[in-house]
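[Q] Does anyone have a clean structure-token version of this?
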Amino acid sequence: MPRHAREAMLRGIETNTIIVGAYTDPISGGICPMLAAHRNGGRINLASFARSWDRYTDADRPRPATQRELRTLVALLESSLVDEVPPTGVPKPARAPQRRRVPLRIRRVRHARDADAPEPVGVA
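[A] Here you go.
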């Protein structure tokens, strides 16, 4: 999930009643974490998150999320944001460009071709 969506989800969790088992619950007025993120600027659509959230909470019908479920979600989101920041506050150095590897089959053909070539004649 992109960083901006995780930050938006954290903001949404603070300001909304979070539910499990549905996108919205008209009875409680609660919303799922993805809708909370969407309403706070995290414009993404991740069905895999919704499935994982409902599987984690063992939701079979819409209900408010428990404090334990919310604490776990907040802890996971916060730790994922912390893990992205270098410990020194210095940006990570760019990786050195990698040489493109030539497939072994092509290397063998080139080697065989070059081995049959005559030695160049020196100019006197």
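[Q] Thanks! Anything notable?
[A] The radius of gyration is 27 Å.
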